[in-house]
Amino acid sequence: MKTIKIFAPATVANLGCGFDVAGMAIDGTGDIIEVGVEEGEGIEISNRSEVPLPDDIESNVATPAVRALLAAYGKEVAVRITILKKILPGSGIGSSAASSAGAVWGLNEVLGRPFSPERLVEFAMEGESLIGGGARHADNVAPAILGGVVLIRGYEPLDIVRLPIPDNFYAAVVHPHITVTTREGRGVLPREIPLKTATTQWGNVGGLVAGLALGDMALVGRSMKDAVAEPVRKRFIPGYDSLHDALFAAGALGVNIAGSGPAVFAVCDTLAGAEKLCEVMAAHFAALEIPADTYSSKISGEGARVI
Ligand code: HSE
Fold first, then answer.
1. C-alpha of residue 281 to centroid of ligand 1, in Å
2. Which of 124, 205, 226, 248 is the most buried (most CB within 10 A)?
3. C-beta of residue 105 within 8 angstroms of C-beta of residue 71
4. Which pLDDT tens digit goes with each residue over 178-196?
5. pTM, two decimal places
6. What residues does ligand 1 touch, defined as CB less than 6 Å away?
7. How many Cβ atoms sit within 10 Å of the Cβ of residue 25?
């Protein structure tokens, strides 16, 4: 059996204003996925993580992603996947995306790279659809596969834009050990938004893209606001408002919920600044007696890769 080992990074989706259309890879943590193929057919998935994953392969996000790739490949092979999860499910930093991204990246490598990275994003989105209650969003899988900061300009057809990454773009992320599933996080969202809210939101999305292109981290930070999801999702994160204010007081340029939460991210323009923001995050959850992990990271252009 030909096997390969892949690192798939954690990701922050939405970046505040860009619900379902913007995301970035963070290098501090990620999953390790081993993929093997041989003649035959069928998918086997084993879990070497400390956290339980669904026993039934139909409930594992890697399964629909791998099936989508095999359907496009047009030839049956037997696929064995071993998952070592470092990103806890329900954390908000792209746990499911890392599994599906790592699985399709690894399978593409062992098959001799029949597909482009952009095509792999489409396959990996099938995994997101499984856990998102049918919502096919790419704002975690695209950065997990491509790395860096990405904009999904459109879904039909999928149009992914890799955005420039300012040299001084740093992020701090905290993952409090409470679980919010993507389904829960999406369930509370408004189905319709007032025009005024939409205007605020698209102004910020434009500001985010312009800030990245201009290398203006202050503009990036002040555009990471969210008038749609943050107001209804923050209830899942204990003390969110006070954490938000403490992070700005400690020098954050932007703060918001990572994906559907409960992880929270903050951005700034130095590594020392990001480390300080991590301390504020850790102190916040320690005071609430909620165990939490923090990561500080320069935003790099690297996505899924062979290790
Ligand atoms: N854009 C998705 C959401 C990301 O906010 O529901 C899920 O991690």
1. 21
2. 124
3. no
4. 988 888 899 999 999 999 9
5. 0.95
6. 13-14, 19-20, 137, 139-140, 182, 185-186, 229, 259-260
7. 31
